[in-house]
Amino acid sequence: MMIYLPIAELSVNIFIILGMGAAVGFLSGMFGVGGGFLMTPLLIFYNIPPVVAVATGASQVVASSVSGTLTHFRRGTLDMKLGTVLLCGGLVGATLGIWVFSLLRALGQLDLVISILYVVLLTSIGGLMLTESIRAIRRSANKQPTMVRRPGQHNWIHKLPIKMRFKKSKLYLSVIPVFLLGGSIGVLTSSLGIGGGFIMVPAMIYLLRIPTNIVVGTSLFQIIFVSAYTTVIQATTNFSVDIVLASILMISSVVGAQYGVRVGQKLRGEQLRALLALLILAVGVRLAFGLVVTPSDMFSVVFAGAPE
Question: What torsion, rounded to 10 degrees, do the Cα atoms 291, 26, 134, 82 define?
Fold first, then answer.
């Protein structure tokens, strides 16, 4: 069954789009990520224009994140205070990212830059996460004690000023690194159409020392509002949000996220990180392959005055 996407200006199989949304929603709920890092490349693989894929992918992230956040809120694994600080930084970063997105589009370099940034981010972060996860799994298999931070032992982040107490996370921490982390994720959300959870989750665990059970729900909470803000701004400034495509993705991702949360609760932390790392690496390698392989059609026809 084919359906026409007015902004993307092409017809797609609705069942394939539904399947994409459900799968990404499932992974979002399982890993605590928005899923944009996977949805945007999938849409591009399916010949959706990158400009539309980035903007519309952000709207799908909203739906899957809301579904997952509600589940974590009911289970008490969401730090609202910490999430609010992350959100403030995210909104500032998203505003900057929208400006960069518009500038690159005006210069005609948006598609190439998006692809290159995705390859660099996904392969580097996926590789680091996979290495750490394998070490953790080996320690667990050999019944070696996990290295934990002893009381009174702090890194440079814990020495920064303007500290705030986050009771849910049991932390007394400077708001500066939290705000900057949220800001960097905001830039990525608005310029690449990703929720940024695959960066935020490991950063919150390893840099900020936030308990793993709190990280997932708090990450999703911040992603909701930053992605929603990005969607509205993209729609009003670049006119690149396809409402038909977004609606289909939202409906299917909400359903998938509910099942993903249930599965994620049954896996250990190091297992989840290893699976997420493999997924990130797979997407990064696929994008890199698309950049270097010779296309089947070396030329294309573009009509003068046609929208990007």
Answer: 100
3-class SS at 307? coil
C-alpha distance from residue 296 to each of 42, 293, 299 (Å): 19, 9, 9
Kind of pairing between the strands at 171-174 and 163-166: antiparallel
Q: Is 80 helix (H, G, I), strand (E, B) or coil?
A: helix
* The residue type at 269: G
* CA distance readout (Å), 279 to 42, 121, 125, 152, 189: 13, 13, 11, 36, 19
Backbone angles phi, psi at 13, to 5 degrees: -80, 120
Residues 6+ positions from 67 with CB-CB distance below 8 Å:
25, 29, 253, 254, 257, 258
* pLDDT tens, position by position, 116-160: 877 887 788 778 778 877 887 787 777 765 554 443 445 566 667
Q: Is the pTM of this model over 0.70?
A: no
Contact between residue 80 and residue 267 where contact means Cβ atoms under 8 Å apart: no
